[in-house]
């Protein structure tokens, strides 16, 4: 009592404050690295900046770098334990996920050539719509009219933002929407093909298994589309500082995902992603000087409210599931407590009969 009254915090409160501070630290690291990777990729690919418009090549460089580091961490330094996967599981589960990941990264990086950073972030607000719709089609999510109404609200908001986009490019929009579609399908398939089998991959082991597969899939369009052009660029000399830092940031982002999701939750990352999107929109407008109209902001504001409501519903569902789990554990414990006196009574009666 004396210590508490003297102003020092109880150990329980001190532990809670420490967890809150660490959670904000993880969120800050993830937002910073995600922000950096997006702006860095835009800088490299945009014709008005670094002017190296080869998204497949850039993505393959990322995958080669991440594959190498993941191999070192898993096999050489053994910082992360390797998860044993059979050939059948790899071919039937990891390979499709790797193919979808390759398509998603290729298309999303390609969109930076045609669209502003701010508008791309607005289009990414459609991710919950795509994930929910594909989940319903594949019987992973149950159809709810209220949820679908919320998805329609998000879609209308993004459509208004697209209508108000000053530098609208139809091809760029198609590329980004394709990236959203493939990424949403990948997320749903992870639940169906891996989670349902009890296979859990953290970002490092995910890179260890998926990045090489992704590299192989990307090499097919690369040989057909970009390799002939790059072979003719005899004057181009890659800046190893630029591409090296870009790769380090991309790999660091995967580590940040591991910290954020592992120490908090995937929902926390979704909420932090909304904050990151607003920061990127502000940065795109103020620093890169991209045009952001009032119609853009009004449409994205509507989509933003829909995404916030979606995250709120997810949080409520998680809390309800946790409460049900605790109630079931409490009932099980109560059953054991009731059973123990009966067992003792039966043992006593058995002794008396002897």
From TrEMBL:
InterPro entries listed in its UniProt record: Sugar_P_trans_dom, TPT_transporter
Domain Sugar phosphate transporter: from-to ranges: 25-311
Chain segments carrying region Disordered: 332-354
Cellular location(s): Membrane
Pfam families: TPT
GO (cellular component) term, any one: membrane
Principal location listed in the UniProt entry: membrane
Keyword terms, alphabetized: Membrane, Transmembrane, Transmembrane helix
Residues that span the membrane, as ranges: 21-40, 52-77, 89-107, 113-137, 149-168, 174-194, 206-225, 240-260, 267-288, 294-313
Membrane topology qualifier: Multi-pass membrane protein
Full protein name: Sugar phosphate transporter domain-containing protein
């Amino acid at each position: 009592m004396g210590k508490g009254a003297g102003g020092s915090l109880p150990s329980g409160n001190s532990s809670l404050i420490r967890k809150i501070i660490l959670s904000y630290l993880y969120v800050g690291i993830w937002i910073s690295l995600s922000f950096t990777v997006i702006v860095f990729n835009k800088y490299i690919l945009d014709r008005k900046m670094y002017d190296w418009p080869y998204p497949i090549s850039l993505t393959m460089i990322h995958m080669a770098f991440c594959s190498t580091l993941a191999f070192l961490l898993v096999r050489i330094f053994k910082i992360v334990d390797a998860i044993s996967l059979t050939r059948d599981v790899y071919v039937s589960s990891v390979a499709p996920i790797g193919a979808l990941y390759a398509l998603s990264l290729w298309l999303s990086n390609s969109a930076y050539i045609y669209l502003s950073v701010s508008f791309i972030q607005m289009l990414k607000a459609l991710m919950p719509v795509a994930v929910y719709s594909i989940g319903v089609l594949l019987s992973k999510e149950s159809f709810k009219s209220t949820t679908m109404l919320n998805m329609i609200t998000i879609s209308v908001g993004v459509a208004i933002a697209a209508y108000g986009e000053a530098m609208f490019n139809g091809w760029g929009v198609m590329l980004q929407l394709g990236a959203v579609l493939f990424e949403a399908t990948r997320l749903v398939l992870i639940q169906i093909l891996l989670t349902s089998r009890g296979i859990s991959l953290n970002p490092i082991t995910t890179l260890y298994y998926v990045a090489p597969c992704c590299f192989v899939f990307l090499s097919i369009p690369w040989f057909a589309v970009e390799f002939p052009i790059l072979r003719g660029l005899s004057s181009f000399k890659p800046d190893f500082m630029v591409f090296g830092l870009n790769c380090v940031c991309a790999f660091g982002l995967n580590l940040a995902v591991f910290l954020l999701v592992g120490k908090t939750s995937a929902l926390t990352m979704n909420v932090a992603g909304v904050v990151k999107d607003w920061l990127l929109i502000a940065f795109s407008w103020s620093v890169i000087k991209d045009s952001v109209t009032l119609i853009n902001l009004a449409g994205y504001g509507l989509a933003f409210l829909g995404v916030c409501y979606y995250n709120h519903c997810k949080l409520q569902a998680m809390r309800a599931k946790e409460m049900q789990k605790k109630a079931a554990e409490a009932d099980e414990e109560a059953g054991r407590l009731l059973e123990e006196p009966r067992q003792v009574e039966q043992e006593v009666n058995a002794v008396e009969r002897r």
